[in-house]
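#dry-run=false #mode=assembly
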Amino acid sequence: MEVFGIELSWLAVKIIQMLLFVVVLLISLAFLLLMDRKVWAAVQMRRGPNVVGAFGLLQSFADFLKFVFKEMIIPAGSDKILFILAPIITLVTAFGAWAVIPVAPGWVISNINLGILYVLAISSLGVYGIIIGGWASNSKYPFLGALRSTAQMVSYEVSIGFILITVLLLVGSLNMTDIVNAQAGGFWNWHAFMLDFSDPKSLILFPIMLYMFILFFISALAETNRPPFDLPEAESELVAGYQVEYSSTAYLLFMVGEYLNIVLMCSLSALLFLGGWHAPIDTSFQILPPFFWFAIKVVFMFFMFAMVKAIVPRYRYDQLMRLGWKVFLPVSLAAIVFVSSYVVFWGRPAVNLVGAGS
Amino acid sequence: MLPALAFYALSAVAIAAAFMVIAARNPVHSVMFLITTFFSAAGLFILMGAEFLALLLVMVYVGAVAVLFLFVVMMLDVDFAEMKKGFLQNLPVGAIVAVILLTEMILVGAASLSGEATSVQPAAEGVSNIRALGDVLYTEYAFFFEAVGLILLVAMIGAIVLTLRSRDGVKRQNISDQIARTREDGVELVDVEPNQGIG
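#status=ok
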């Protein structure tokens, strides 16, 4: 059976894959949200949500329902179309980037050659949800929040792009699956810890790539507007930033999109720096499925996000900009120069540089 | 069938959005339509098999340039009545420019259609987009590539020079001082006797 030259069975498989991704992401998001609050509470010696369901396990679902059943208020002076469009853009771009994320060998919706570039392109669109939402509200606080967040996200996107290039240079491909497979064999092959003692020259990469991993983590915090870089929604200054005028489902969409972006950044750092679905030591844990390793790394990264939120005070805005442009940008540029000279002069024996996405 | 349909849909959206860029009353809406145009153009690139260019278009133009456009347009306090005032005076100049542009476009289109067909050498099978581009960009056209980079650098420095002005009496942050501050510098523990106050 074919429609417009598309095999129907292929179409059905793809649609089922997409639905699976969306459903699994939303359900795991509910529990990650709970984990976020529980970690935060534990750091502050509170209990956190513990009423709805056992240990508060159903708290997120109760919150979701509450959001959906509340009345949605659209301010009279707002630009109505853009006001409603903004949260939709946030949610759609947050889901869209997941199309190229491989969660286990072969478990990916679209295994395209330019996977990383696609993720960068789609995630750079996420800023529109925020800036449009802030502007369409026609109110001072949201507008200031939107301006802040735009400048912040555009700045840190640059350093994230440069950090990704160091990984791409080592792998020689932009395909996500290739990047993960280049880190097979054990944790000493992961890009965060390049400790392959059989090739002494490659040890020189260890400090650089570890530093790049830390830089990526901090940039990811800034890119997703998480504390200590949550200036777009700094409560003490801007109430809730670009979300001030949003209520009910529209606010829910913003929040889900924001958390999806955080999980996306966690899985990106797992894929690019922590070996994706590969076990830390190759032979011993084969009983566990590859997806388990991917999930545990993502959850670990999310735990780090939650811990940072709990223990680090908020940055000042000029410090944030200085960090992005005067520290991260030159450092990541220098790392690119260094890593590319390494690749040119000493090569990478483990990977044959056949070119991007062969 | 499907590529043709997609082509017509994308081009229709691109043209309609491009028209709305100049027709929209609100400048922010204009920028939004501009973004739609960029997006449709990226879709057209994908239909031509230039995925790398398409993603680059989305990343650079939609993700960065248009955001800054939006940024500037939102912050400008545009008075539309003021802007429309000079419309009739500027109309002849605008019309002349438009006519010249249209003539040029027609000439270029006609020339490329009437001349003998120049076939573009397709890249070898199995060579990806980004590799094919990189192979020529950093070898054959390396000089031009670097020249473009230099021009951009000059433009950037020019913009900074134009906006840079040094004034007296401006308080500046000294970041190294701020980082070097210790608890002892900033906090003083005073043991106050009851009913004495801090002398």
